[in-house]
Amino acid sequence: MKKSGLTAVVLSILVSPVYAADKEVNIYSYRQPFLIEPITEEFTKETGIKVNILYSKKGIAEKLSREGKYSPADVVLTSDFNRLLEITKKGLTQANQDVVLTETIPTQYRDDNRHWFALTTRARAMYVSRDRVSDQQSLTYEQLGSPDFKGRVCIRSGKHPYNISLIASMVAHHGEAETKAWLTKLKGNLARKPQGNDRGQVKAIQEGVCDISLGNSYYFGKMLNNEEQKPWAAAVNLVFPNQIDRGTHVNISGMAMAMHAPNRAEAEQLMAYLSSDKAQVLYAQMNMEYPVNPAVEPSEMVKSWGEFEADALPLTETAKHRQTAYRLLDEVKFDL
Amino acid sequence: MNNKKWLILAWATSFCLILPALFLLAQSFAPDTELFDHLWETVLPDYIVNTLQLVSLVLIFSALFAIPVAWLVAMCDFPGKRYFQWLLMLPLAMPAYVVAYVYTDLFDFAGPIQRVLRALFQWDVAIGQHWFFEIRNVPGAAVMLALVLYPYLYLIARTAFLEQGAHLLQVSRSLGQSPWQSFKRVAVPLCRPAIVVGLVFIGAEALGDFATVHYFAVNTLTTAVYDSWLGHGSLSAAAKISILMLIGVMAILAVERWQRGRQRYYHKYTGQTALFHLSGWQAKGASAYCALLVFAGFILPALILLSYTLKSMSFNTDSQLGVVLLQTAWLAILAAVITTALAIIFSFTNRISRHASAALPSKLSSMSYMMPSTVLAIAVLIPMTLFEITLNDLWVWLGFDAPGLFLSGTVFALVFAFVVRFQAVANGTIESSFLAVSPSLDMAAKSMGKSNQQLLFSIHIPLIRKSISTAVLLVFIECMKELPAALLLRPFNFDTLATYVYQYVSDEQLEQAAFAAILIVLAGLYPVIRLTQTGERTT
Predict the structure, then answer these.
(1) Closest residue in chain A to residue B108, using alpha carbons only
(2) A151: closest chain B residue by CA
(3) Radius of gyration, CA atoms only, chain B
(4) What is B1-24+317-539's CATH topology?
(5) How many Cβ atoms sit within 10 Å of the Cβ of residue A308?
(6) Does ipTM come in above 0.85?
(7) Do A193 and B415 count as a contact with CB atoms less than 8 A apart?
(8) Of the given ranges (A306-310, A331-335, B24-28), which has the lowest mean pLDDT?
(9) What pTM does this model have?
(10) What was the pLDDT predicted at A7?
(11) CB within 8 Å: A66 and B109
(12) Three-class SS string for A209-236?
């Protein structure tokens, strides 16, 4: 029995070769494949380069570093900035000197050393009950800790990368002690313990569990495009907070070339494509995110949500406080 | 092969299986006291309390679910018993995260149940004015896990009750004990070792679970493991917590063994089962309890999955799904056969070898079962990539092209991780069946000059063949459902049914992958039904 098992393993290795002869490019992705596959399919159609994707929400950086110089990964895609910076800091990426990227991606959305590049931006917005909250346009993140919102706030786990990034930006603006006090008050205002995802909070607002929540901007569009979720979106307004002062916190999704990319040329081609007008239009239309390429406009629906001021603090500054944000969440037992 | 060669074979294979755990152990010695102190001063005590509550509640619920129905099905006669025998196993085919998903959808504040209740009683929806129950908490998660894990205990306990035979109970009844007293004072204590084995499986699954508790917003020690690794960036702190969890489990097991003392129960099965014929409300109650379990653990979630599928039919025309089903089943079969073969090697070696260390391969290779699955995946990668990089370097030095990651970049990594993780399941099943084979058979075979191989293949294996198929089937079902390790270790463009479903669950859109979830369940159904039948033939 054992022998046949081993034979089968050996056979399986023989029939699934690691490298095929045709041109291809390998992606390690933190983003769900159904978000990027339509775009990579277009890329394959245009260039004839086959795209292989490995998706995992956890452990990609660790896998990459363990694989070392024989790693098959060419390009890494992430859905937030901190993970992008993490792989850069760990020395798992290399510079991409392609000049095209400097034309398609504005300076603030790429690394000075050309290691990481943003592809889209998304606002950490507020979803606010249409009828039950007043003065919606002057809302701020800070206000979520005010006594006015006692028992009225819903939020997903504080440790989700999107919230971590926002809390780190609070530390950058207000310092550690003040942010901790804010987190404590915010926790006291929660209608229920942190749970679910961004859309789940909007559903809770519709049902009357709470009146206000935090969520990425593109979910508004996704809910409006989904028959079942449409009523949830109809119960809320999408509000860009802190328009009266520093602007709304913005995070990015992005890409980097792996340090030991075996298919460098193809990786460069793919990265250039992802930042090109064509792919950026797809990002904007399908995912309702804001394209980084200035030549491409957001989708009509996204435009209808209005323009907003983004927090001007560079993401690299915010990222410095990520560990602090994590520690503060533990200290106030935010998720418990 | 002589005894010594068997011993070497057992040790060598089990060494390969514990390599990941060893590397993780080494990792845990790296200094990171600062992070550990921080966790200890903030959230760790709460996580520990949550974990203890969760695991004990899962064990209590599983025992309350499984033991009564196991007893009823084994010893009593009541309407529908013939069907309940195997129907009660069905929840095993349901992945816990899928059950968790459908139940939250159903019982959430915004779900249909609470909505109907509110409409019915005109509850005021204004905050704080109304009563509503929260399903996303420790007891909620415990019920979910118990609903899909109790079949383990049911399977083992039912067999144990059957093997116990009727004569002891006849004695107990003749001494004036009621059926209930016979159950409580004779049957359950006699089956204690079997019940403990079942509970250990269930406890380990509950302890290592991440998907369900995460979905239920319950923070446990697995949360701490993932937080320290992914949030605080310290694999060594994560390793340390995993190792501490392992030590905790082993301590509890040691206490149980010590408390059980040197009691041993030997019974000879008589082949005659005197049934308690239930009638009236007792019979109705028995049927109703079994029906409720089957309904809650299987029928209801299956119906909801079906309704999701019908609702979003347009998304399910994915032609890939057939391929995904086949490759998942194929991997699961492979892993199931390998673990079972290894379990036989370990148990057989332990039986024929007089060496004190012969019992260790089985015990050591069972340890990884307690490790959170993503941590296990990384633990598998550490030695595997080290080996590959060394070999690649050597190849390049010799002037050849580097062969690349021929282990960690292929399905080999996946199969290896499945084997490492589920070896405990096969070991547990095979070990107990070897114990039931009388040593006098070995002596007889030896006195007739039979070799070890002849002893194994012509005597032991035919005698334990039912347990062999039980082990293969159990590991198969586990592999079909296994998620986190599969997610990280699969090769490019490769999906198992679980990873396919998960990409949608993680976006809270199970509706779009409900059909794939149904396939996981269907693929598990046949083995589950076979499991009860293999138990059947022993009666």
Answers:
(1) A204
(2) B127
(3) 25
(4) MetI-like fold (1.10.3720)
(5) 18
(6) no
(7) no
(8) B24-28
(9) 0.86
(10) 53
(11) no
(12) CCCEEEEECHHHHHHHCCCCCHHHHHCE
